[in-house]
Design brief:
The protein is of the alpha+beta class. The chain is built from 29 helices and 21 strands. It is globular and about 100 Å long. The two termini are about 45 Å apart.
Length: about 800
């Protein structure tokens, strides 16, 4: 076990002039002369430092030619420093600097050398500022969708809640009139029927009949969705079209309200056919879906509707993703964009490249085409030709105001008037010109253009708040509050933030945060088929769904308790996952549960004896941080160290690849990793990493519980030295989860990552104590994740204003 070195120097490397960090706590300890009670109550950390440390480290911690030349620099808190000095320093004479003396030295070192303000004073870090930030790709797509959607006709309000599945109407056909007589209305949980040579019901003749399924689809992720219809009969599928209920007859020569079908297999040949098509959808939104089916004189009738989501597999589209509610069409820009910068661990709109601007232009053109195609509905045009242009101009003014998130200036109105009143131009040409102008404007493409010296308007605050929680435009209620100047106080902002958290867009935003925090991303979970034959693409898709449902249940519960993300002793499993991950002794009523759940339904399964600890031991993450044929304590340990426990790791001095074939065949994975990392250059970091990684060795490469590795008993026990220098006995993942759930450094790391993801900014730009303040409030709020998100959004919107 390598000794922990919480204090470090920072100096320029003589070779490449880069800043490097070197251990210095031992150096400081060597300068600390015996400190006794002779100077206790009236001493200060500065006095102790000046008398016993300055000769080696310089009066201002800048280093000394005949001592340690590196400036003092470190990351630990005052409490961590004091605890470590109290227990460890001076080396060999720990009792000489304890209690108040240790706290005095720690406070002085922190204030003068460690704190962010001290680093700024000494030029070790640049002064943080709120950066000018364009929309990220996700923000751009969301903003365009909500911009166009704000003018779309909305479904008629109803008191009836949506139910899982699709609303189905069954008709007896009469020649070309497929929907001649309605015979049955019901809710179907999925479309997967084999009618054979009979009718759907006793009173519907088998020779010719029709069924219309209509409702809403709820995709979770953004990307391309594939739909597949299997049938020997006639079908049309509409996805994300302007919805309309059946009007008149459903005929062979007409489709739903003149819309273009995603799949058009209306002309049947009697043989089984498979129709496939793809559509781009934004995650976390609701889209109208309609399937029309008919049989006419064919011998047999059947129809199955399937889909394949991004990162998913083909499966029956069922009630878990369908509802009987109505939803308007949502315009989804599918223009390819260059990826956003992720160098800081989160996507941000920093670069404006030629490729990005070309994509913005293409997106604007696509949006203009969408607006032109739907202009009668979006602009609420009537047949009166005399007032048509006037209504178009009025619509374009409102379109620009919504895009800019504020009232238009007089000069902007003048420009739009000139663009909109060209006599010889058609309405379509005017719309295209204005839409391209608006969507190319920096007032649309940038979240906030307020100069640093200027106070934000209420509309600016509304925009900051909406992009923090929704990655999109303010809604009508938020803009109305801005118009009334009701967004300039913290309490007013908090009320709006809590309201906005109830919107599905907030769920989508936080889902993105957790994907980043847990590093879910686009990880390859493929495993050796000989070793893990059951672990296929369907299992991977189920595991991701299991993890996301687990996160949703905790985050959107009343408690919304961060600690339960770490401490939960259960998994959400469907039938397929139960077969792979539940040991027979784990769940006494397992057989009954197994028989009563379908492939897409996830139920809570309690795991006994501390075998599961929230996200730490979820099979998706255990599989993600493993090799294709074995576990990886290093990958798992690095993830736990950085993301869960909240400790920083320096890049390895030398990258050493793990090559399983280089080790004796009889060794366990723990023994191999111990050999690989025992070099002195590796020991300091792996003293943090390995104990955490070893604690997960009871889980194999696909996250199943095991007792042996390479036919030897698994040893998951270790001693872990905490950031305060205390030795902690670690027997399993539960010990790590319990430690992290009560560890301020873990809380701080969680707050820091959420702040950066929600705001796309560095938190210290809002004040040196931003993260500390939010962490304290997070703890006071019983670690409520929703409250934390609201507080971050409010702080970003008001630039850190205090209560």
């Amino acid at each position: 076990m390598g000794a922990r070195v919480p204090l470090t120097f920072k100096r320029r490397n003589a070779v490449n002039e880069n800043w490097v960090r070197l251990p210095i706590l031992t150096a400081i300890a060597s300068c600390l002369m015996p400190v006794t009670n002779l100077y206790a109550s009236d001493s200060t950390g500065a006095t102790i430092y000046a008398q016993h440390c300055a000769n080696c480290h310089g009066a201002d911690g800048q280093g000394a030619d005949d001592g340690y030349q590196q400036p003092i620099f470190g990351d630990d808190s005052v409490a961590e420093l004091a605890s470590y000095i109290d227990r460890k320093m001076p080396e060999g004479e720990h009792e000489l600097c304890v209690g108040d003396d240790a706290r005095l030295v720690a406070r002085y070192i922190y204030d003068e050398f460690y704190s962010f303000a001290a680093q700024q004073r000494k030029g070790l870090v640049s002064v943080p500022r709120i950066e000018l930030s364009r929309l990220t790709v996700e923000q751009y797509r969301n903003a365009v969708a909500d911009l166009v959607g704000s003018f779309a006709p909305q479904p008629r309000p109803t008191d009836q809640p949506g139910l899982p599945g699709l609303a189905a109407e069954y008709f007896q056909s009469d020649g070309m009139n497929k929907a001649d007589k309605r015979k049955l209305e019901r809710i179907d949980r999925q479309v997967d029927f084999d009618f054979g040579d009979e009718g759907p019901t006793d009173d519907i003749a088998a020779d010719q009949f029709c069924v219309i399924w209509q409702g809403t689809i709820h995709p979770r992720h953004t990307g391309d969705y594939e739909f597949r219809i299997r049938t020997p009969n006639g079908v049309r599928l509409y996805v994300n079209c302007d919805p309309s209920r059946r009007q008149g007859s459903l005929r062979d020569d007409s489709s739903a309200a003149g819309q273009t079908a995603l799949i058009d297999g209306w002309v049947s040949s009697g043989g089984m056919r498979e129709h496939t098509a793809k559509v781009y959808l934004l995650g976390g939104r609701a889209y109208p879906i309609r399937l029309e089916f008919f049989k006419y004189k064919e011998e047999l009738a059947s129809v199955t509707m399937e889909w394949r989501p991004p990162l998913g597999v083909w499966s029956t589209l069922d009630h878990h993703h369908l509802s009987t509610t109505d939803a308007p069409r949502t315009f989804c820009v599918d223009t390819p964009f260059p990826p956003d910068d992720r160098s800081r661990g989160y996507e941000r709109g920093s670069a404006v490249s030629r490729e990005w601007y070309a994509a913005v232009s293409e997106g604007a053109i696509a949006t203009a085409n969408e607006v032109i195609d739907r202009l009668p509905a979006l602009a609420d045009l009537r047949d009166e030709k005399d007032s048509r242009r006037e209504k178009v101009v009025e619509f374009l003014q409102r379109f620009a105001q919504t895009a800019f998130r504020r009232p238009l200036t007089d000069s902007e109105r003048s420009v739009l008037d000139q663009m909109s009143t060209v006599d010889e131009a058609s309405d379509e040409a005017v719309v295209r010109r204005v839409v391209l102008y608006v969507l190319s404007s920096p007032y649309f493409l940038y979240v906030d253009l307020t100069p640093p010296s200027q106070a934000p308007t209420a509309y600016t605050v509304a925009s900051r708040l909406s992009f923090a929680l929704w990655d999109s435009l303010p809604d009508a209620e938020l803009l109305a509050a801005a118009e009334r100047d009701e967004l300039l106080g913290v309490e007013q902002l908090e009320r709006q933030a809590r309201r906005m958290l109830a919107d599905p867009k907030s769920r989508q935003k936080l889902q993105g945060f957790f994907a980043g925090w847990l590093e879910i991303g686009q990880r390859d979970l493929a495993k050796d088929k000989d070793l893990f034959p059951e672990f296929d693409e369907a299992v991977v898709a189920d595991l991701r769904e299991s993890l996301e449902q687990f996160l949703d249940q905790i985050v959107w519960s009343d408690a919304s308790d961060y600690r339960q993300l770490l401490l939960a002793d259960y998994l959400l499993l469907n039938a397929r996952l139960r077969q792979l991950y539940v040991v027979a002794t784990d769940d006494q009523d397992g057989d009954d549960k197994q028989n009563n759940i379908d492939a897409g339904h996830f139920v809570r399964v309690e795991i006994p004896e501390g075998r599961r600890a929230g996200v730490l031991t979820h099979p998706y993450l255990l599989s993600a941080f493993s090799y294709h044929n074995s576990t990886s304590p290093i990958h798992r340990g690095v993830f736990l160290t950085r993301n869960i426990v909240g400790r920083k790791l320096k890049p390895p001095p030398v990258a050493v690849a793990f090559n399983n074939e280089e080790f004796p065949a009889e060794l366990t994975m723990r023994e191999k990793v111990t050999q690989l990392t025992r070099d002195a250059a590796c020991a300091s970091c792996h003293a943090k990493i390995n104990p955490l990684g070893f604690a997960l060795e009871n889980f194999d490469a696909v996250g199943r519980w095991r007792l042996t590795d390479n036919e030897q008993p698994v040893d998951a026990r270790s001693q872990y030295e905490t950031a305060t220098g205390q030795l902690m006995e670690v027997d399993d993942a539960t010990d790590i989860a319990t430690y992290a759930a009560s560890n301020p450094a873990a809380h701080r790391a969680f707050v820091l990552q959420m702040f950066r993801y929600l705001t796309k900014q560095v938190p210290y730009a809002y004040g040196a104590e931003t993260v500390s303040r939010l962490t304290e409030e997070f703890q006071q709020d019983s670690f409520n994740i929703q409250e934390l998100a609201a507080r971050i959004a409010v702080m970003a919107a008001g630039y850190g204003q205090k209560r």
